[in-house]
């Protein structure tokens, strides 16, 4: 047997998807793990090196977006409370000063 045939015969076929589940389900079977995780990560970092500035900007904006998503309801609530309290104070001042307005007003 040639080397090519040996490699083909020793590799295992991929695990089939579980039949009968809507959406295909999750395939339960053997998962191929990387043989050398640190070398794989170094390769990945090397491939992404030209995009580091973009990746950093993405992380900064993701963090800012999360902060604003947390703080914006609190700020909006404080603004609403201020508007309502100002509206009540204006209504009270008008009702207190109503007697000083001219009769045809």
Written description of the protein model:
The chain is 63% helix and 0% strand. With 105 residues, the protein is mainly alpha-helical. The chain has a domain at 51-105. It is rod-shaped and about 100 Å long.
Number of strands: 0
For the terminal residues, how far apart are their CA atoms? Answer: 108 Å
**Helix-strand sequence:** HHH
- The low-confidence parts are none
- Integer-rounded radius of gyration: 34 Å
Estimated helix fraction: 55-70%
Percentage of β-strand residues: under 5%
**Major sheet characteristics:** none
Which secondary structure elements does this structure contain, and how are they paired or packed?
Blueprint: H1 3-10, H2 37-48, H3 52-97
Name its key features.
single chain, 105 residues, mainly alpha
């Amino acid at each position: 047997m040639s080397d090519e045939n040996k490699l083909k015969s020793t590799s295992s076929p991929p695990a089939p998807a579980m039949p009968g589940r809507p959406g295909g389900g999750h395939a339960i079977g053997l998962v191929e793990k990387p043989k050398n995780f640190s070398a794989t990560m170094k390769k990945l970092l090397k491939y992404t090196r030209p995009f580091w500035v973009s990746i950093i900007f993405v992380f900064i904006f993701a963090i800012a977006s999360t902060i604003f998503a947390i703080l914006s309801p609190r700020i909006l609530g404080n603004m609403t409370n201020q508007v309502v309290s100002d509206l009540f104070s204006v209504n009270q001042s008008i009702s207190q000063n109503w007697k000083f307005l001219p009769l045809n007003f």
